[in-house]
# Entry
Amino acid sequence: MGAGLLTAAASLRPVSGSARDVLDLLRPWVAGDDVEPLVVRTSGSTGEPKDVRLSRGAVLASAHATHARLGGPGQWLLALPVTGVGGLQVLVRSLLAEQEPVLLDDHDDLVDALRELDAPRTYASLVPTQLHRLASAGRLDVLAALDAVLVGGAALDPTLREQATSAGVRVVRTYGMSETSGGCVYDGVPLDGVAVALGPSGRIRLAGPTIFDGYDGDPGLTAEVLVDGWFHTADAGRLDEDGRLQVLGRVDDVVVTGGVNVPGPAVAARLREHPDLAAAEVLGVPDEEWGRRLVAFVVPRDGAAPSTQELRDWVAAERPRSWAPRQVVEVRDIPLLANGKPDRLALGRLVGEPA
# Structure
């Protein structure tokens, strides 16, 4: 099959290469001519990357379930890196649909690429940053012509989603990861065949045909997270009154500061609602007095300069006062990984946390 994508089991290496190279290498694999697993390297947004082994059955189960949920196969825009599971799944879905994907790399910008989609059913998979940029440029109209836009990889602000929906965009919020062959819960509802359960502490567990085979070269970690057919994620969640999954953030995103458990994602979501902020992320860092100190990294809108006290009061107006960040760091942009997720290690280095 070609080095770097699919090789003998004893020497598997993560997916690599250009989008066209990977697409060509995937064709016989999707057709069933090769049964070796894919190896996808995780983003490493919170630590060392891991090599995830995905069977052909798991990858295809995910792709078929996605098309079933969205209303059928169609033409896809590839606007994500093919080294990650999100980009790979766009290629796999395209091959199953027998539709050549539109590649963002072949165009000057995202708007030009979206305009090239021309099939009875059309789809795109984006990260929130891409959706935000289209909204800021006043070009959500190019998404409204699509049958669905999957958005995943990072937190999606409710305000941004509402703006897109009001413009006629069918936004589908996805939850998943490399270990689940990509998104496996759409708008809180598991894809066909996927099961969701919560552990005693609210830790999300997932099961079904899309789950990975294990971490390549790390049987210990594999045994730790794959238990009795269930994948124990690193995320915390809750089920609402309709049984839909609400993802609260990573288990380790709960910052214990001064003896109080503070859910970092909830604080970040509240900060993003501030009219003077364009973006915000929250991180807990070691602190001699508090154990861990809640730090907010914020991107002010042009000309705005909200003070730390103002932002603390803003959080406290809707959340417990103890959830208010004790430090606010202004940044020009939130550092992102290639897949659009916030680079938490880079944020930590801004406040002196060791890599």
Q: What stands out?
A: The CA atoms of residues 18 and 325 lie 42 Å apart. Residues 56-70 form the longest helix (15 residues). The chain is about 30% helix and 30% strand.
